[in-house]
Amino acid sequence: MQWNQKYDYPKSSRATVDGIRRYLLGETKLPSVTSILDATRSEEDKAALANWRERTGQKEAEAITKAASSRGSQMHNYLESYLLGRENLSFFEDNEQYKLMAKEIIEKGLKNRLDEIWGGGMHTLLPRKVCRYC
């Protein structure tokens, strides 16, 4: 696997602005992918999620949501370390769900399939007329 250094991607930092995760590139505040997905969710999906929260109970739904978010972040961080060549083989010694998920993505999607990487965790700034959520 080769890292292509063809482009010089801008550095960014992360902040929460009005409850929405944003990536800061200079003075520009870009929403996270999750924030964009939330903003573009259909009314049907919003209703289904609200119904699930009601059936499950707000406190339990919040705990499940928080655990899923944490699991996703941990898996994302490990996959990024894998792509950067910083993975630790002892990582897979225990069976935490995010580790099993990361291992499956590596084995079935990345290993021996990915020849070149052009960037990781990069942000692309689009003009406002293209990205109404920026």
In short:
It contains 4 helices and 5 strands. By secondary structure, it is of the alpha+beta class. The mean pLDDT is 83.
Give a topology summary.
Layout: E1 2-3, E2 13-17, E3 20-25, E4 28-31, H1 33-39, H2 43-56, H3 58-83, H4 97-110, E5 116-117
Parallel strand pairs: 1-5
Antiparallel strand pairs: 2-3, 3-4
Helix pairs in contact: 2-3, 3-4
Task: Walk me through this protein's architecture.
- The protein has one domain.
- The model has no long low-confidence stretch (mean pLDDT 83).
- Helices cover 46% and strands 14% of the residues.
- It has a three-stranded antiparallel beta sheet.
- The chain is built from four helices and five strands; from the N terminus they run ββββααααβ.
- By secondary structure, it is an alpha+beta fold.
State the distance separating the first and last CA atoms: 33 Å
Kindly name the structural category: alpha+beta
Whole-number count of domains: 1
Strand adjacency order, main sheet: 2-3-4
Strand content: 5-15%
Pick out the low-confidence regions. none
- SSE succession: EEEEHHHHE
Question: How would a textbook summarize the main sheet?
Answer: 3 strands, antiparallel
Outline: globular
Mean pLDDT: 83
Beta-strand segment tally: 5
> What gyration radius follows from the Cα positions, in whole Å?
18 Å
Helix content: 40-55%
Q: How many H/I helical runs?
A: 4
Keywords:
134 residues; alpha+beta; 4 helices; 5 strands; globular
